[in-house]
Hints:
19 helices
Amino acid sequence: MKNNFYITTTLPYINAHPHIGFAREIIQADVLARFHRMLGDDVFFNTGTDEHGQKIYQKAQEQNIDVQKYCDEISKEFDKLKKALNLSYDNFIRTTDAKHIKAVQEFWKLCKKNGNIYKKNYKIKYCVGCEMEKTDSELVNGRCPLHPNIEIEIREEENYFFRFSKYQTKLLKLYENNPNFVLPKKRLHEIKSFVEGRLKDFSISRLKNKMSWGIPVPDDDQHIIYVWFDALINYISALGWPNDFKNYEKFWPGYQVCGKDNLRQQSAMWQAMLMSVNIPNSKQIFVNGFFTVNGQKMSKSLNNVISPYEMTEKYGTDATRYLLLSGSSFGEDTDVTWEKLTKKYNADLANGLGNLLSRVITLAQKGNLEFSTNFQLISNQTFSKLLGKMEFGQALKHIWKIIQDDNKYIDKNKPWDLMKSNQSKFKKTMQKLGQDLFVISDELLPFMPKTSKKIKEVLETKEIEILFPRIK
């Protein structure tokens, strides 16, 4: 039966250029989108850019350009990932889009009408890097551990607040009734522990005379809407809410991919916001670990990032997709360096998959052999389950086990000798290798779509092509 499948990334904050942390997130969403298309589902895949808030305003000021112009220029760098990483998203939303702005203001009105927004004075410690309030227990040596190079600000002003505390019981019930709501499960345990503590109402506006770059609060021209409240609503505004209810009702609720530093916002704040306006909660939230460099978190603010554009220039698109997905178990941190990436590229792609295909095609040429093209789409249930749980590293290990076994199979059976001494066994051996390559091609399709297509082309034409030349 054909199902509707909605997958969305978080929206990267455009205070800097893209790095591989977000690249992995959007590639993961792309793999799920492609896999569900393979299953025959009707897929809507959303991504975009988060463009309001103080950090964006400050970046534009630093460069002495109009803030909207700054957003227009940097958002293009993220949209260009579609070609660089061969992404298949259907929608690219910007939080400066007029339709999104109207949706946010309508959401605000509904939330206020339902008694979930009020105004009060408050004093907080604030991390500009996170664009969030911080408690003393969250600080290390008086600074945010995620942004240790940014001083904590003390803020005191009148803001609008969202009644987050009202939703503690409902959130805990959501998690209890949906044990796979957040994956991996240790992240679900983390957010349950957070919600089980005393939830505090959070600020959802800023005074316009202090920070003007944001969506105006309806019926109050002295305030603009807090960037987190604004950005989260993109998941439904991207579907046309509140105007295009046909498309919205077709695809919502959906699946979300985020980094572990977004866990609280995605799996608690956003879910409470949905409850506040009687909209169904998300279906499932997949939480990534960080990329680290020599054990230190890769971060735009720490200036230790690797660009996905640098990677595609060095390794190519499909190899970059593979390297970003295969490094670790889902949700765990991954330590990367150029040396480690190149070593894995040569071992897995040049010496592994590339070598296997080259050996099989060379033997097929010499033996004047045609391969059967009667192959089927993915039927391996274990493999499908791994994709459904976003265990992409394990799914790729499953594929590479076939590749490794086939290279060993060639060494053991010596088909170059069988070609001369036993034609029947030679053909049987080669058909097994050819069939395995068709299976590998099918299973690689959501991960490495160009490579998947090329493997089948090479098997059919028997024209040797070096897919992954060794890199020094």
